Amino acid sequence: MRKFSLLTFLLLLSTFLCLGVGTAFGGSNGNINSAAVQVNVTNQNPDTARPGEPVELTLSVQNIGNDDLKDIKVALNPEYPFSKLSGEDLEKSISYLNARQDDDDAGVLKFKLMTDANASEGTYDLDIVTTYKSGSSSNTITTTKTIQLEVQGKEYAQVVTVSKADIDIAKEEPLEFIVTNTGTSPLKNLVFSWNDPKGVVLPVYSDNTKHIKYLEAGQSVKVDYTVMADVSATPGLYTLNVNLSYEDADSNSKNIQTTAGLFVGGTTDFDVSFSESSAGETSFSVANVGNNIAYAVKVSIPDQDGYKISGSSSTIVGNLEKGDYTIASFDVSNSQGGNSQGGAGGNTTGNGPGTPPDSSQAGANNASSNSIGSSDPLKVQIEYTDAKGERETVTKEVNLETTTSGNMTAAGGPGGPGNRAGVGSYLPYIGLLVLAGGIFVYRKKIHERIQARKGKQSEYKKPDSEV
After folding, report:
1. Where is the composition biased (Gly residues) (predicted)?
2. Cα–Cα distance between 141 and 153 in angstroms, integer?
């Protein structure tokens, strides 16, 4: 009985020892083995897969069993973000492997896979499928091993937008750049800068360099500047050289260079003032008071209450450089009829409110073409083509008054308030002429009398010889 128990114990112990050896050969311990095959990744190039780039894997296929193996096939079963690389096989074969191989005797297989360009940073699984036949059996054995590959995020940034396409000359203008991390890995220690090679556009209140400490994947940041274009700049499109440098995950510095276009020049402004009025025409001085040239300038008097234009209501004066001016003339009269009151409703005939004018006053009013007070401004419209080739319109107002003959004068100038009574406005000049004529006649008569008296005295006075 004891012998049987001892024999039973030894048999069981042998069974457990065999199972332990089998476990040693077939256990994973990071490797996927069949009963006798062990597959390991001995090298990966690059060490961390990069989006949009291939990754090469070197596999060691070792027979650690007691039987020789034949028809060994090793295949990769890639899933996102890995895929088959054009021209490369996903399955490779080894015809024969001897039993109990050393590491130096193992078979070596190389595979290449493509990493998706938009892969995010992280660790991904990859299955390796191995099939083979044992020398002592015709059965095919299949095993699968799952390994993990690390993918480094895509490190890339770009200047997505520039807030302005044009700036005016000699004017402080805001300029905003938006920098976006379009990769899948964060960026750190970014340095953004730009410059105009011609030196026309320059930053004010700061230099041209901005620092960004950290930028997450997919995140955007605004980089603000205040810029100004040289007052003597020629309108046109200027190139901005944009530079962006940053550090990758390995603290290696990378640099991105690009360009942006910025148009310098744009609209301008005008000043319109009364010039003179004569022969039924009213003239205006039109000056370009902005910093840009105005092309094909057209001056018009639009339809408006209180004024009437006889003849053409617009004139083309050509190009106006900044600081230049021109004269535009129009036949402007008051369109209000039946009275000679000012724009504020005041009475200009010298009579009190409600007093009807006499016939002489009525005649003067009819001849005055309905004068209007300075409270009714005349609208002058200016159309021009700016430096960008766009048609612009500016409207200005000019305060005017009319003389008794209907001609326009500047408010408060000759012919202004108090000089609206027709011929009465010329009475001071007539008085002066009459006075000057009277003085001339008077002096002439006095001179004649003196000459007459001298003549009489010479008749009565005898020479000494006659006495």
Report:
1. 339-353
2. 38
Within 10 A of 309 (CB to CB), how many other CB atoms are there?
18
Buried b / exposed e across 438-467, counting CB within 10 Å, b at 16+?
eeeeeeeeeeeeeeeeeeeeeeeeeeeeee
Q: Angle CA(53)–CA(56)–CA(60) in degrees, nearest 5?
A: 165
Omega within 30 of 0 (cis) for the link into 414: no
Contact 99, 62 (CB under 8 A): no
Burial 246-264 (b: 16+ CB within 10 A, else e): bebeeeeeeebeeebebbb
What is the token pair recorded at 132? Answer: 């083979």
What is the overall mean pLDDT for the chain?
78
Q: What size, in residues, is the chain?
A: 467
Measured CA to CA, the distance from residue 307 to residue 373 in angstroms comes to 12
- Rounded distance between C-alpha atoms, residue 171 and residue 169, angstroms: 5
Specify the CATH architecture of the domain 158-264. Sandwich (2.60)
DSSP, res 339: -
Nearest CA to 249 among 159, 122, 149, 126? Answer: 122
CATH match for 31-151 among 2.60.40.10, 3.40.1000.10, 2.40.50.1070, 3.40.630.30: 2.60.40.10
Number of H helices, E strands in the chain: 3, 27
Amino acid residing at 457: Q
* Tens of pLDDT, residues 230-239: 998 999 999 9
- Cα 457 to chain centroid distance, Å, stands at 102
In which element (H, E) is residue 152 found?
A: none
- Average pLDDT over every residue of 230-256: 87
Whether cis (ω within 30° of 0) applies to the bond prior to 463 is no
Tell me the C-alpha distance between 43 and 103, whole Å: 14
Closest CA to 158 of 248, 220, 247, 240: 220
Most confident of 24-28, 61-65, 128-132, 379-383: 379-383
* The pLDDT of residue 372 is above 50: no
Q: For residues 374 and 400, is the Cβ–Cβ distance under 8 A?
A: yes
Average pLDDT, stretch 309-330? Answer: 93
Give yes or no for residue 423 having a pLDDT over 60.
no
Check residue 243 and give its pLDDT: 93
User: In this structure, what are the phi and psi dihedrals at residue 407, rounded to the nearest 5 degrees?
Assistant: -75, 150
Distance, in Å, from the CA atom of 355 to the CA atom of 349, rounded to the nearest integer, reads: 10
Over residues 189-205, the pLDDT tens digits come to: 999 999 999 999 999 99
CA distance 163 to 176: 5
Residues 379/343, Cβ–Cβ less than 8 Å: no
Paired tokens of 429: 């000049």
